[in-house]
Structure formats: C-alpha cells, structure tokens
Write a structure and sequence with these properties.
It contains four helices and eleven strands, in the order αβββββαββββββαα. By secondary structure, the chain is of the alpha+beta class. It has one domain: OB fold (Dihydrolipoamide Acetyltransferase, E2P) (Beta Barrel). The longest helix has 13 residues.
C-alpha cells in the first residue's frame, strides 16, 4: 500500500520540479487588477496572504493604504488599483496581499486576485507600448508577456515602488521603522 502512495507523490511532484530549461527569471506570479492580467517576477515574491486589517498611517501617498503586522514584521501595503490611477474598489474575499522583497525592502501589493505562476521566457516578452511614462523610460510596464493565447502586463517592480515621480523606497523603509 505504501508504494502506490509514494508513486503518486512522485508523480505529483514531477510537475513542480524545475528542469535546467526552467529559469526562475522566467517565472512570473500573475494577478488581476480591474480585469487585466499583470505579472511580477517570482523572485521578488515572499508570500501571498489574504486581505487583513490594514492600519492607516498619515502623510503617505493615497495608494499606500497603510501597514500590516505579518508575524511581527511591519509591511507597508500599496493598493495597486490606486497606484495605477484606477478607481477605488471595496476589497472582496478574493483580494489578497502579495508580499514582495525588493532590495531588502518588504512591500505588500493589494490586488483583486492571484491567477497563477507562469513561465514566460524573455523572448516572449514584447517591449511595452511607447506612450505615457514608458515613452521616456519611467513607466512601470516592463513588457507584455505572451504565453499561448494569454498576455500579461509584466511590471517592473522596482519602478513601481521607486521612479522619478515618486521615491517610495526611503518612505517605505521609514514607514516600517516608525511603525515597528
């Protein structure tokens, strides 16, 4: 009886192992915001947590909803809808916080829902449209990742939290320190 169980575990695990052809740099966690698919490099993702109480803090941009206490760590939470200039939407049971580590700065992204992890090789990522912030190289869109008939807007996470119009890295670090 033990052998079939072990075999099933091995078969299930076979789909989860990385081959030499797979590269973590080609893996993206995809999520939805306002019905569109976005992706962030899986190397930045530390965990995904359900929506929880976000403590509001003063003197931060409107898209920083506040901070959460995640097992003793203070994590600033950015509402991606608001960061992208979209209308506010109440959080639902599908809303999650994607916790990222960007250059040793933890930040949470509140998104409508998580989709899946996709392998999108660099060759399948087209240049971003050349308008708005992307025209002059300041935009948060790294490219458009294609996998089969699916397209995900690949986000440059470093620019999302720090570009020429905002510099959140220092603000996020200060916010964590003051709330700790």
């Amino acid at each position: 009886m033990a052998e079939p169980a072990e075999k099933n575990l091995e078969e299930a695990g076979a789909d989860l192992t990385f081959s030499e052809e797979n590269n973590i740099d080609d893996m993206y966690l995809t999520f939805t915001v306002a019905g569109e698919e976005y992706g962030v490099g899986i190397g930045f993702v530390t965990e995904i947590v359900g929506m929880q109480r976000v403590m509001e803090v003063p003197d931060v941009p409107a898209f920083i909803k506040g901070v959460i206490n995640l097992r003793g760590k203070v994590i600033p939470v950015m509402d991606v809808r608001l960061r992208f200039g979209m209308d506010w939407k109440d959080y639902t049971e599908r809303t999650v916080i994607i916790v990222l580590d960007v250059d040793d700065i933890p930040v949470g992204l509140a998104v409508d829902a998580v989709s899946d992890v996709r392998e999108i090789p660099e060759a399948n990522i087209d240049q971003p449209p050349q308008y708005g912030g992307n025209r002059d190289g300041r935009g948060v869109i790294r490219g458009l990742g294609k996998q089969g008939d699916q397209v995900a807007i690949i986000i440059d996470i470093r620019r999302l939290i720090s570009d020429q119009s905002i510099d959140l890295r220092q603000d996020l670090q200060a916010l964590r320190s003051s709330a700790a």
